[in-house]
């Protein structure tokens, strides 16, 4: 005889059992309202037996008394269920709040101990605004160790998300740069820019490596390879590599670029790695062709004399107030801050008379500062540097497409040609400082031809360093790669796409290439993923300097890397709900004391 299966009998809880036996249905199981015991099988005999054997004292109650007692018991049960549900919800909210505060601490470059200070502030505010909710705020754990752990967990989650997203991309490029922190530890920043099949770009930090020792091309290469391996990135989809141009980075034999190309050959990659020297860095190198260091050196020495010593600086500010000058001070120039050069040059030119008077009062020789030829050179350098600063700012920023950056440089080269022509004609509408000196010294003294030659040399240097990305509608099909020639012909003969290219520009047009042209879409993805500069690396190093200071010199490499990953994340955000679900609210001793 086959064994009976209770589930197949479709037994259901009967509502009358509540009044008769004081049982209720919870999640499909009969539960006693009196003692909380449950019956495994939904069967009236089992329920009645439990009631008669366990609760004999209730059998003397009449029907109305039973109903009243059942209402009270059910009310107590609902209160208990609500209490535990609310307690669980508050516990999860406290954990999530601790993650949110830890994330803000990481983004604002605050020390981990800041959480305890914020906890103290929250408790005092709670005492005034909502004292009845004080326990909820007390449950938020913000001790130093908790904040550190939360930051590391969020950084790990971001890295996991990036790894998952990397499974669905068609091409990627890397931007690599290296700098030292305040403890002289070399930190290698590696950013990735990847493009998926729908031509959507993801630009995030791939890894930060601490290098305790040498920083040769071999050392950098091994760290980059380790990061690629850990993220399980396919070598055959690596398209570009952008560096700062240092020998350890760009050397074809022992540098990172040469070793990466050799590695791709070992991996049997069909494509060739395209190596780029940071466009912003090249723009700064172009300035050296002007050969006006003697002007900058004199300016730097003058500014350092005024700003380096506190007494001189205070006396100069007092002097500027006495003469009711428009400017109260002069900015300080540092070599690593590229944009400060233009501001310093312009301010020194505008305050040249006041500076000479102050320097005379201090017994300093001002012969050079008063020389008309030198002041003309100062005016020219100030104007050119101002234009270069504008170009520099246009090249900075996230999500910059390399074609747009090269178009910006191309426009600047055309401007240089215009400025050169106008300079030879002594027409100076775009050089305000030079116009002032031209009005003061006259055409016979102002060396406009000499300055025009310098602009010509600068334009030649830009042309040497920067090429042009070709218009897909103007490129010669015969010189194009074989795999895209047929699709390129179809593209060039499509009037709708050509009109869209003319109106929307290269950046938007790339995403409009139809899926019927897979090879062109792949080529477009490879163009989109290229880094034009190491701007993101430089920005990360600025964040690093803010975090690892003299007061936080003992910050570990792991914690520093987690902070930098959270601080630089743009498109990815930590999945706080998943992280919270894995935790349980656990108030530390320091939190209880708060």
Automatic annotation (TrEMBL):
UniProt lineage: Eukaryota, Metazoa, Chordata, Craniata, Vertebrata
Residues in coiled coil: 48-80
Residue ranges of domain SPIN-DOC-like zinc-finger in the record: 14-72
Keyword Coiled coil: yes
Domain of life: Eukaryota
Organism: Scophthalmus maximus
Pfam family of the protein (one): zf-C2H2_12
UniProt keyword terms in alphabetical order: Coiled coil
Gene: LOC118316461
Name this polypeptide is given: SPIN-DOC-like zinc-finger domain-containing protein
